[in-house]
Specification:
10 strands, alpha/beta
C-alpha cells in the first residue's frame, strides 16, 4: 500500500484535441494514496477522456501522467497499466469467457501460478459478495450487478495501486445501484485503494469521494471536499450544477 499523503497518480498540464474540438485544456490532477477522487461533470466535460489518458489508452497532446513517481510513456505503458485496475459501465466483460475466465485473464496471460490465482479469485468473490456459482456463468447469464462485481474482481486481481472506474453504475436500475454503491464503498475502505471515479451524479460523487473535481468544457472548474462544492461554489455554474441534482447530496444511505 502506498504511503499516506503520497500522490499515486498525477496528471500535469493535460491537453487533448479531437480534430478541431478541444476535449481537455491544461488539466492538473493529483490523486493521493488511499483516497477516492470523483471526476464530476456534464456529458462532454472531458472526464472520461481524462481517465483514458490516465490509463494510457489515449496519449495527451501536451502534459504528462505519473504513476507512483514514474512517467507514463510508450516504452512502459503496458507495464504500468498492470498496476491500474479499470472498470467501465456494464463491466466490459468478454462474452465468450465465463466469469472466472474474465477475472483471471491477465493472471493467466502473465503465467501466474494456478493455485495462487484460484486463491485470489476466492478471496475477491467473498470481498465483492459474488456467489461462487456465478463464476461458472457467462456474462449474458449474469445480472447487471453481478457483471459489475465480476468486472471489479478483474480490476483487482493483480492487486493494483490504482482503481479507475468510468461510470461503473450508470447502467443499473436504482435498487441494484444503491446496493452496489454500498458494497463498492465498503470495498474501497477495506482495501485502502486509491480510486478515481467518473460520474455525472453529484450524490454518487459525494457518497464515494474524499475529493470532487468538477470539470466543464475540458477544464477544472472547482475541486475540493464534497461539502466545499455544496457550501462554497466558486461560480454560478457550480451552484446550478449542484442544485440540478434531485437526489439528496451525500448519496443513498449516507
Amino acid at each position: 500500500m502506498a504511503e499516506a499523503g503520497k500522490a499515486v497518480l498525477e496528471l500535469v498540464g493535460i491537453s487533448k484535441r479531437f480534430g478541431a474540438l478541444p476535449a481537455l485544456s491544461g488539466v492538473d490532477l493529483r490523486c493521493v494514496a488511499g483516497e477516492t477522487t470523483a471526476l464530476l461533470g456534464a456529458s462532454g466535460s472531458g472526464k472520461s477522456t481524462l481517465l483514458r489518458i490516465a490509463l494510457g489508452l489515449l496519449p495527451p497532446d501536451t502534459g504528462a501522467v505519473w504513476l507512483d513517481g514514474e512517467r507514463l510513456e510508450p516504452r512502459n505503458v503496458t507495464m504500468l497499466r498492470r498496476r491500474m485496475g479499470y472498470v467501465i459501465q456494464d463491466g466490459g466483460l468478454f462474452p465468450h469467457l465465463d466469469a472466472r475466465e474474465n477475472v483471471t485473464l491477465m493472471a493467466r496471460h502473465l503465467g501466474l501460478p494456478r493455485a495462487q490465482t484460484a486463491a485470489r479469485v476466492r478471496e475477491l468473490a467473498a470481498l465483492v459478495r459474488l456467489p461462487e456459482a456465478a463464476l461458472a456463468r457467462h456474462p449474458v447469464q449474469l445480472s447487471g450487478g453481478q457483471r459489475q462485481r465480476v468486472a471489479l474482481m478483474r480490476a483487482l486481481v493483480l492487486d493494483p495501486a490504482l482503481l479507475l472506474l468510468d461510470e461503473p453504475l450508470g447502467a443499473l436500475d436504482p435498487l441494484v445501484r444503491a446496493e452496489l454503491q454500498e458494497d463498492l464503498r465498503d470495498v474501497f475502505r477495506r482495501l485502502g485503494k486509491t480510486v478515481v471515479l467518473v460520474t455525472h451524479d453529484v450524490a454518487e460523487a459525494a457518497y464515494f469521494a474524499d475529493r470532487i473535481v468538477l470539470l466543464r468544457d475540458g477544464a477544472v472548474l472547482q475541486e475540493g471536499a464534497p461539502q466545499d462544492l455544496i457550501e462554497h461554489p466558486l461560480d454560478s455554474y457550480v451552484a446550478r450544477f449542484i442544485r440540478a441534482q434531485r437526489a439528496p447530496i451525500g448519496g443513498i444511505g449516507a
